[in-house]
Amino acid sequence: MKNYTIQEINDLVPEYLSSRDQKLLGVICMTMYSYLNNFLYRYEQNKDYREEVVSTVIERIIIYIDTFDASKAKFTTWITQIAYNEVMNRLKMRSKYHFTDDMLHLPQDAHYNDFELEDHLTVMIEPTDVRSLILEFKESEYVNSIYVDAMVMSMDSVSLMKYAIDNNLNHTTMKTRAHQGRKFFKEWLKKEKFKGKNIIID
């Protein structure tokens, strides 16, 4: 697939608005997904939070692209400003309130992961153990494997949007599957590995 420049994306938007070619919309969204991920890194280094912002902005592109007014700004300038506002609002909210992440993040390159339990015990899990736990979780058939696969793709930095487009799936569906996969994995860990313990992700 051709890599499009930002200027080419600005030129493609009017073409999409006149033709309604869904392939063009896919090109626009995929290119902006990569661009916004790089742009937002300076403000948000947490990969999961950053991708959540980018996914939100991409969804807004799909929903509100008809409201774009080329006489006021370039398309990429308009979207970049929306992304900037979104990430700044989320950072302000996080600094104002104390959040405990309800999602289980298990980065592949981590040296270990801390699971802080109710009785203040900490379980240290090496990355190799995490992988074996995920395999055991999948083989247990606790949930449909599509949720586990989406979770693993998200962990391995596989673009859920690219996978969705290549397989004619909705990107939001893939994002939801990854979220549900982490949720079910956490639930399984609590039931099967850390019974009676409340796993809190720091």
Notes on the protein architecture:
This protein has two domains: 6-96, Rna Polymerase Sigma Factor, Chain: A (Orthogonal Bundle); 113-193, Arc Repressor Mutant, subunit A. The protein is mainly alpha-helical and 202 residues long. It contains eight helices and two strands, in the order ααααββαααα. The protein has helices at 6-19, 22-40, 47-64, 75-96, 127-139, 145-155, 160-166, 171-193, and strands spanning 113-116, 122-125. Strands 1-2 form a two-stranded antiparallel sheet. A hairpin with a 5-residue loop joins strand 1 (113-116) and strand 2. Helix 1 (6-19) packs antiparallel against helix 2, helix 2 crosses helix 4 (75-96) and helix 6 (145-155) crosses helix 8 (171-193).
Give the count of helical stretches.
8
Series of secondary-structure elements, N-terminal to C-terminal: HHHHEEHHHH
- Look at the structure and give the mean pLDDT: 75
Main beta sheet: 2 strands, antiparallel
Percent helix range: 55-70%
Structural class: mainly alpha
* Gyration radius from CA atoms, angstroms: 19 Å
CATH class of the largest domain: Mainly Alpha
**What ranges have pLDDT less than 50 throughout 5 or more consecutive residues?**
97-127
In CATH, what is the homologous superfamily of the largest domain?
A: RNA polymerase sigma factor, region 2, helix turn helix motif
- The coarse overall form would be elongated
- Strand order within the widest sheet? 1-2
User: What would CATH call the architecture of the largest domain?
Assistant: Orthogonal Bundle
Short recap of the structure:
The chain has about 200 residues and is mainly α. About 65% of the residues lie in helices and about 5% in strands. It contains 8 helices and 2 strands, in the order H-H-H-H-E-E-H-H-H-H.
